[in-house]
UniProtKB/TrEMBL annotation:
Annotated ranges, domain Mce/MlaD: 39-113
TM stretches of this protein: 7-29
Source species: Sphingomonas oleivorans
InterPro entries: Mce/MlaD
Identification of the protein by name: Mammalian cell entry protein
Pfam families according to UniProt: MlaD
Coiled-coil stretches noted in the UniProt entry, renumbered to this chain: none
Keywords: Membrane, Transmembrane, Transmembrane helix
Amino acid sequence: MENRSNHVLVGGVVLALLVIALAFIVWLAGFHGTDDKQYDIFFKTSVEGLSKGSSVTFAGVPVGKVDEIALMPEKPEFVRVRISVKKDTPILQGTTATIAGVGFTGVSQINLEGAVRGAPPITQPGEHGVPTIPTKPGALGELLNSAPELLERLSTLTERLADTVSPQNQRSITGILTNLDRLSGSLADRGPEIAATLAETRIAVRQAGIAAEQIGKLAATTNGVLDADVRPVLTNLNRTVISAQRSMETLDAAINDARPGLQAFSARTAPELGQLVRDLSEMSEALTAVAGRFDRGGAGAVLGGSKLPDYEPKK
């Protein structure tokens, strides 16, 4: 009877210790973290290095941990990571999440950053019942995403380098180097000629500069001559042309004023002058006849009539 009582006592003590330990564990894991907030992050990059319990930091300060990492069969290009952070963590609009490595251990963590003062908090639940924090590619994610493309480019570059150093291209490169060597030797041999050509070029350039300066002086002299001699002559010529123009205008006015008198002269005086000329012509003819008579018969011929010849009868 006493042994049975001891076993019951021991069992009760052990059971009580188990209940106390279980309560303590629950208090550490559950009761103490009931105020944490959960968020989902959908990564399109590899989440290698993350695991359940990985650290979550905000601007470098630890604020939470990773609760769950799950694949999404309906969206296989994404990996859903659920995190829990302290309730006073400022998860505001503009906050982004990135994956960053921790040293050289191969372990990764989630970094939160980019909160803007005065922005509203992220509270809208997503398709899985908790708010969603957008992602921003981190250095590790970008490296992992670009690794296949980088390897492909390195492979292509290696193949092209192999083609470049093929035997045929090596012979071509050798020929090019040989030609360059010959060309450099020819240039070295013609060094004095090239130097002389450069010297003549300098002289020609100098002479061209002198000629340009002389042309400038000639142009200045020509401008001076124009200012001193030609321009006064042009001024006098302009004055003469203006005077001639005024004279022509005066002559035109005089002709316009004399035009009525000329018209009257043509209409009246001209016929009378014609009649006078005809009368003078007839008088001249008469005087000519009188003079002829005077020459042939003297004054008597003029005053008397002409003597008739004597009549002699025919026998």
